[in-house]
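=== RUN LOG ===
request id: a7f3
mode: sequence -> structure
chains: 1
length: 299
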Amino acid sequence: MKKNILCAFFLIILVMTGCSKESTIKTAKSLRIDFKNVPSIENASYELHLVKGEQRYPLKKFQVVDGKPVELRNDKKIKVFQTERNILDFDAIEITIEPTKKKKGERSLLLSGEINSNGQDITLKFAGINLEGIEGQYMLATPTDEIAENEESGVWFAKIEGEKMVPGLKIRPTQAGWSYEGWIEYKGKITSLGRFGQPYGKDTIDTYSLRIFQPEIPGEDFIARVPNNFPILVNLATGDYKVSVSLEPDIDGNDPSDVNKPFFIILSSNIPNDLATKTPTPLEVMKDVPEATVTLEID
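=== RESULT ===
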C-alpha cells in the first residue's frame, strides 16, 4: 500500500513537471531589425532568411534606408517581419544581397547570427569574409612605363623587399559572392582602380596604365590617360588624393549594387602632401563594418 502511494506521488510530480515545461515553451513569429553601416543599393535587394541546418528559408526582400528596412516598391518602413513559423525553431538568421535578375543560388551573404533559444536580441555580423587582423600598405610608383621621372603618377598596394615590389595587403582571399576593389579619390570624385580577390595578382583594370610591364599586384599608373575630372598630369603627392580598398558584392563578375561607389571601405588613407615615391605607407583599418540587431517578439 505504501509502495503504491509513493508511486502515485512520483507520477503526479512527473506530470506536473512535464506540464510546467510545456507551459514555458516560447514562440516568436515576428522580429524587428536595426541596421548599422548597411548602405542602400540600387540594382539589387536585401533578403531575410531563416536557417535550419543546411536549408535556407527566404522570408522577405527589402531595401535599407538610413539603417531601417523598407518595402521595395514604395520605401514604406517595415516595422516588423512576420512568419507563420516559430523563429526559435531555427538555428540562425541571415541577410543576403540578391541581384534583380539572377540564376538559382546566386547571392552574396552579408550578415549572419545564431538564434538564442531564450529569445534574446541577436547580433548579425558581417559574414562575407573574416576581416580580423587585416592591414595594408601602398606606395607611389609607375612601374608600367619604366620611367623614373613620374613616379608620383601611380599608386600600388605594394611594398619594397630588396629592390622588388611585393604585395602590401594583408587580407584573406575572398569567398564566393565578394570581391575587393581599389579606389582613388580626387576632390570628391572617386574612381575604381579595379577588382581583385587576393593581395597578389593583377586587378581587373589597366585603363590608365601603359603596358610595358604589368606588376602582379593591384594598382594603377595614371599615364596613358586619366579619369574624368582629374588633372591632365596626375601628381598623387599633392595632398588632394585618397586611396582605399573596399569589399563589393560580386556575382559572376557583376556587382548587383552600385559600380560607381564603394559598398563599404575596409582600408583607407589620405595620401600625404609630398609623400616620397616608393615609400610603403600604411592604410588605416576602417571600423564601419555592416552589422544588425534583431529583436524577436516573443508570444
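=== NOTES ===
The helical segments are 2-23.
The domain at 26-128+290-298 is CATH 2.60.40 (Immunoglobulin-like).
=== END ===
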